[in-house]
Design brief:
Distance between the termini: 122 Å
Shape: elongated
Structural class: alpha+beta
Number of helices: 6
Oligomer: single chain
Strand order of the largest sheet: 2-3-1-4-5
Helix content: 55-70%
Length: 183
């Protein structure tokens, strides 16, 4: 029979899996409490970092419909539940792991797709969501400006041609035959 504490822990972890858009599993052996606090600060609003027992985490992940994490839940394990921008969270974990060899990224899951440690590092190499959206908006604005210029070009060409024709007519119709006079 499971103890009430374990049942509550599984329910809490399951809720974190369900309320996050991804999770990154790490090994943390050798990190001090102060270093773990620094990691949590580095992740900010983009992730919640929690040390959890593998068995309880497996049960909670399976209850939440995430079976892809079982292979990563061995040894000392902590999970970063991604609630904000996954790119920023991946960058925070990768940068912290560079400074602290004791933190090892094992793998994770993002929007239901399993990710290896290498894929998480590639995710960290991406630009943030805001930068990507700004680039997309800039590209769309440039495309609209090109389209407007393209649509405006025939109209302005017509106006220039009509203006040139009007100028010729005002100069006495140079190059055009004079109308015949009636007698």
């Amino acid at each position: 029979m499971a103890s009430p504490d374990k049942i509550a822990a599984v329910a809490e972890i399951k809720e974190k899996f369900e309320n996050s858009n991804g999770a990154v599993v790490t090994a943390y052996t050798g990190l001090s409490v102060a270093q773990l606090q620094n990691l949590r600060r580095a992740l900010g609003d983009n992730a919640q970092y929690r040390v959890a027992k593998n068995t309880l985490t497996k049960i909670a992940a399976n209850q939440a419909g995430i079976g892809q994490l079982d292979e990563f839940l061995k040894g000392s394990t902590a999970v970063a539940f991604l609630t904000g921008d996954p790119v920023e969270a991946a960058k925070g974990l990768r940068n912290f792991a560079k400074e602290n060899d004791a933190l090892v990224i094992k793998g994770g899951v993002l929007d239901g797709k399993a990710l290896s440690a290498e894929e998480i590092n590639k995710l960290a190499d991406l630009e943030s969501r805001e930068v990507l959206l700004a680039k997309l908006a800039g590209g769309m604005k440039a495309s609209m400006a090109k389209a407007a210029a393209t649509f405006q070009a025939p109209l302005s060409k017509f106006v220039r041609t009509a203006d040139a024709l009007r100028g010729k007519v005002e100069q006495g119709g140079a190059g055009t035959p004079a109308p015949a006079e009636a007698e």
